[in-house]
Design goal:
It comes from Pristionchus pacificus (Parasitic nematode worm). The chain is built from 12 helices and 4 strands. It is α+β, with helices and mostly antiparallel strands. The chain has one domain: Up-down Bundle (Rhopdopsin 7-helix transmembrane proteins), CATH 1.20.1070.
């Protein structure tokens, strides 16, 4: 009979594989079958799909367990990266957490795009890509650069257990400048973005109501459908609150539980599974093509 920890690892790998399949399917459908009616907005959808795939690959390759110990953080990787080496696991961890930050910034960019459209200032494909890069890239780039700098302060150790290969690494002291940047980006920067999303959503719906007499019913339905889709996608990262609560309780030494530590990454990884499903559920053209391909 499998232990709870082994069951969680199996569930994590299964979820990650499903996330990768769904993300690849969405990437293919968006690039191949996007209707001309929203071809420009598809630039944003393509970026979302690629980010989902990026995060899913990082999650499946690392499959990590995070353990705070005083001012240090120990990370145990159980994923395929252990067969490549310590650097691969560190990079996988960076990809996963950086991708989470990347995703919520991309949703903000998409809301800005929808607001411009409803104002009659529809961006071109190049402008859409520039908008995405301007809003989405700076924060993840700073995060990744800080992780690269902090790599010098990471301790690494390869180990072997009865259950198979694992790799242990961690942060010696999270009070260093580069580590503080990483933690601030992961733990604090996301919340103002949620407030921004709420503001942009209200502006879009308000503008849509104001212009209702000059917009066809078909266009209004499409606008509302996109806003609803983006709202659900924006809510998906909130699953990381679970990981934040568990991490905080362990940091304060209130609880210590290996199963809970493993479940943090599993629950956080559901974003890459849910996000493509939301797109397929929201856009009929993509859903029909996906059914045909399956």
């Amino acid at each position: 009979m499998l232990s709870i920890e082994a069951s969680l690892l199996a569930a994590h790998m299964g979820l990650s594989c499903l996330s990768i399949i769904l993300s690849i399917l969405l990437v293919y459908v968006v690039f191949r079958y996007t209707p001309a009616s929203f071809a420009t907005f598809a630039v944003m959808l393509k970026c979302h799909a690629l980010i989902d795939l990026y995060v899913a690959v990082g999650s499946s390759s690392s499959m990590q367990r995070v353990i705070p110990v005083n001012w240090s953080i120990i990370i145990i990787s159980y994923g395929p990266c252990v067969y490549v080496g310590s650097t691969a696991c560190y990079v996988s961890c960076t990809i996963f957490f950086g991708g989470q930050s990347f995703f919520i910034h991309s949703i903000v960019a998409s809301f800005v795009f929808r607001l411009l459209v409803i104002r009659g200032q529809t961006p071109t494909a190049r402008q859409a890509l520039a908008l995405f890069c301007a809003i989405s890239l700076p924060d993840p780039l700073v995060y990744s650069a800080s992780r690269c700098i902090y790599y010098r302060r990471v301790y690494l150790k390869e180990s072997h257990s009865a259950g198979g290969n694992i790799l242990i690494f961690g942060f010696v002291d999270v009070r260093s400048f580069s580590a503080c940047i990483v933690l601030v980006i992961l733990l604090l920067f996301g919340w103002p973005l949620f407030a921004t999303i709420i503001y942009l959503r209200s502006k879009i719906l308000s503008k849509l109501n104001q212009n209702s007499s000059s917009i066809s019913e078909k266009s209004k339905n499409m606008q509302r459908k996109f806003v609803t889709m983006l709202t659900f996608q924006a809510a998906v990262p909130l699953v990381q609150l679970y990981a934040a609560v568990i991490f905080s309780l362990e940091f304060m030494d209130i609880i210590r539980n290996p199963a809970l530590e493993l479940s943090e990454h599993l629950v956080s990884g559901t974003k890459s599974f849910l996000s493509p499903l939301i797109v397929f559920r929201s856009i009929d053209q993509y859903r029909r093509k996906a059914y045909l391909l399956i």
